[in-house]
Amino acid sequence: MSTEYTLSADGYTAVVTAHAAALRVLQFDGRDLVVPFTAGGPIPDYRGIIAAPWPNRIADGKYSFDGAAHELPINEPERATALHGLAFPLDWAWKESDAGSLTLTCTVGPTAGYPFVVELSAHYTLDDAGLHTSVTARNAADVAAPYGVCPHPYLVAGSSPLDEWVLEFSADSFLEVTPDRLLPVGTVRVDGYAFDFRSARAIGSTEIDHAFTDIAFDGGLARLSVRDPAGTGVGMSWDESCPWLQIHTADKPAPVPGRLGLAVEPMTCPPDAFNSGTDLIRLEPGAQHTASWSIYAL
Questions:
Q1: Whole-angstrom Cα distance, residue 48 to residue 84?
Q2: Model confidence, pTM
């Protein structure tokens, strides 16, 4: 069974597992803010993980960096992609903790398809404003490394069906993807599309598994809210290190239960950035990069 850590503060409780540094539970006054998973078992659907050193997927697991070709193992065989990085299978090491904070670390690489060495540090802080997470990457090798990161929580607004939840976030464009492999085609303005949630409205039957960009940042933060018509809700904010946002309505083919929560993933780069280069972080030797986000009750 993976070691796990419980944080408590001002009505909030968070449980983080050493395996994948995953957020297993987040509650406010006993109400789930994320879809939890069972202690000691597998992590379904990458719930709560830190996806690094890339978010989302890489087509065919193949990319080139600084003139060298690389090929990663395929872990999404139905789409022939390398999905959600290399950190999620790892057990992260404890560095420090107290009642309301926790720091876990791991090292990614060198490994097949990623001959780089990136040290990751995930810091969690719980207070009366919710759960705040930052992930810092440091290049520990003597060559530059490609890098990206995102969290993978499934938010829960309340007890009503997801179709009834009211979603709002300010993004002017979304990334059109191929229907079979969800690989990028090009950015499209949300105007006139079912993906326009710049004004709060119910999700309804809309199925979303897309990245959004041209996000509005106010005072250095972007914000998303999802509210249950019964009156509860959950919000998420993130800093300008993440100019992309993946939203997924967690649709599953019957008889598997679907639409249990709304995946909200602030990303430093879009899907397949190792090939497109779009917003890909180039970590020089010794350089660091930090991305931060928060989840809180509404």
A1: 12
A2: 0.98
DSSP 110-170: SBTTB---EEEEEEEEEETTEEEEEEEEEE-SSS-EEE--EE--EE---SS-GGG-EEEE-
Of 122, 118, 55, 116, give the one whose Cα is nearest residue 92: 122
Q: What pLDDT, on a 0 to 100 scale, did the predictor assign at position 2?
A: 78
Q: Which residues contact 218 (CB under 8 A, 6 or more apart)?
A: none
Tell which phi-psi region holds residue 279, choosing left (phi > 0), alpha (psi between -120 and 50) or beta: left
Q: Which residues contact 169 (CB under 8 A, 6 or more apart)?
A: 197, 198, 212, 215, 222, 223, 224, 225, 245, 247
pLDDT, tens digit (0-9, with 9 covering 90-100), for 119-134: 999 999 999 999 999 9
Amino acid at 128: D
- The pLDDT of residue 104 is 98
Structure token digits, residue 223: 């914000």
Report d(CA 208, CA 201) in Å as an integer.
14
- Hey, what amino acid is at 74? I
Residue 95: band (very low, low, confident or very high) from pLDDT cuts 50, 70, 90: very high
Please give the average per-residue pLDDT across 253-261, as a whole number: 92
Residue closest to 113 by CA, chosen among 77, 150, 157, 59: 59
Burial letters for 176-187: b for 16+ Cβ neighbours within 10 Å, e otherwise? ebeeebbbbeeb
- CA pair distance 7, 11, nearest whole angstrom: 11
pLDDT at 254: 85
Average pLDDT of the residues in 227-246:
98
Biggest CA pair distance of the chain? 55
